[in-house]
């Protein structure tokens, strides 16, 4: 029998994904809506940052530091939630987290000075550790196990549009209600939309029982060496530092390369579309490669992009190629960061691993923008690009090592 063509394999994958377990499709719909709301609402400062600064008597950088506080709080709380995810399941933990998020927005709406402002972001960070990304990936893993990679890719394809949907939404609401009124609307949205979806639509965690009705304990997976977990953490954390940092300073980086403000904004606006497109391509091929393979291919594009921009002296063509390479690489790497642990862990161990990884990942996300801004200010674009180039190369090398440590059964498949 002749071998199937690549388009045939992709079509087969698409049909298989669409016809997959109805519970998986249902949870994907729930998570698509709730994650869009979760990530979209906390992007509030990007639109009303200047209004916040004026009303609270704070500098604009201090206002945006609220997001850093959010990530630090998420990272510090995530490991403490690992037992809860394992014992009660993601659905229950995410319901509680959603309930906690609403008071965070209420507190933010009542803020009159910096202390209450940052306290609100701490509450939102604590809630986010239960509801944002990590909890969603754990819920998908509860339904699909190691096959959750395709579902995670599909979810990230949707959530990548959160800013495109909620930035204009925030602008519209704040124009009519002010930023305080917008916070109240978002608190209500979480309680009236996200919470009911988790409570009444998201499927409960399925517990397999034997003939006597007793829960069946899953067979223990082969022990994964601690050094392997350390490599997984290092690869994910280094890439998160690069992606979150470059994404935050991209406009200023391009301006430092000599582009006019309008040009920098035009090139920067292309990034989101390219990143989402790259996630879509990874989804189409998701049945044929795992997170490590995705990471190796995508991760290689990042140091090439950095090096090109460093050597180009700000040429327009080079900036365009940089945006293309960096956008495609960072978009696919976002999927890899979420799915690399699936190569080594399943079910309960995956929940524990993701909760532990969330601490360094969120800390890297919090410190990278101010650190790269400092390097950009002190040493120009070469300082920021030089550090991200080193971290990107290190990520690729670590992924090569992880590829050699794949469990034998998975290595045979890939």
UniProtKB/TrEMBL annotation:
The keyword Transmembrane helix applies. SUPFAM superfamilies: MFS general substrate transporter (SSF103473). It holds the Pfam family MFS_1. InterPro entries: MFS, MFS_dom, MFS_trans_sf, Proton-linked_MCT. The chain crosses the membrane at residues 24-48, 60-81, 93-111, 117-140, 152-173, 179-201, 229-251, 293-311, 317-345, 357-377, 383-402. Residues 27-407 form the Major facilitator superfamily (MFS) profile domain. The keyword Transmembrane helix applies. It comes from the Bacteria. Keywords: Membrane, Transmembrane, Transmembrane helix. One of its GO terms (molecular function) is transmembrane transporter activity. PANTHER family: MONOCARBOXYLATE MFS PERMEASE, MONOCARBOXYLATE TRANSPORTER. This is MFS transporter.
